[in-house]
Design goal:
185 residues; mainly beta; lipopolysaccharide transport protein A fold; 12-stranded antiparallel beta sheet
Length: 185
């Protein structure tokens, strides 16, 4: 039994359309000029520093903060990887240490990782410390954000939470998620 002509055409039409698309695409790629790959981004440091001390000053020539690192790997985009980081004279005054860090271009912020400790004196002879594994410090806005679990300890308070947001200038802290606080009178 023979199929009507319109049914034969309907059966062959999708196959013909696919064939035309394949021929058109292959013709286009044969006619296109070869693409020259761009240079891969440079991932190697352009220089290293040992025992580095970086100081940032405000418009009034006042020392804003001092960053010390045992090792700094500087990259062509002006970012840097840091080892054994210590930041002093954050507003408060706060001191900050970490095993390693990353400073994006312009040193406006720090991404710190590994044994991050933020400490300050809450009263003469009494320290408060915050512990976490990862912390982002915005040096211009004077804010901190940790999406890793945090622990805060002082002579009278022990607290822990899933995350932290802080404003160093106002000494305002927000502990978020599964917050647990113990207070000693």
């Amino acid at each position: 039994m023979r199929l009507p002509s319109w049914r034969r055409l309907a059966a062959v039409l999708p196959l013909a359309a696919i064939t035309l698309v394949i021929v058109g695409v292959s013709y286009h790629y044969r006619q296109a000029p070869p693409r020259v790959p761009s240079a891969p981004p440079q991932t190697e440091p352009d220089y290293f520093l040992r025992g580095a001390q970086i100081r940032s000053y405000g418009p009034d020539d006042r020392l804003l903060h001092s960053l010390n690192a045992s090792s700094v790997a500087h990259y062509p985009d002006d970012s840097a990887r840091l080892l054994d980081v210590a930041v002093e004279r954050l507003p408060g005054p706060w001191e900050l240490t970490a095993a390693r860090g990353m400073a994006p271009s312009g040193l406006r912020s720090l991404e710190l990782h590994g044994d991050v400790v933020l400490s300050t004196e809450v009263s003469p002879g009494s320290q408060a410390r915050l512990y976490t594994e990862a912390l982002r410090v915005d040096l211009q806005q004077q804010t901190l954000v940790s999406l890793a679990p945090v622990r805060v300890e002082s002579a009278r308070v022990a607290a822990r939470a899933d995350t932290l947001e802080a404003d160093l200038a106002s000494r305002g802290f927000a502990l978020n998620g599964n917050v647990h606080v113990e207070h000693q009178p």
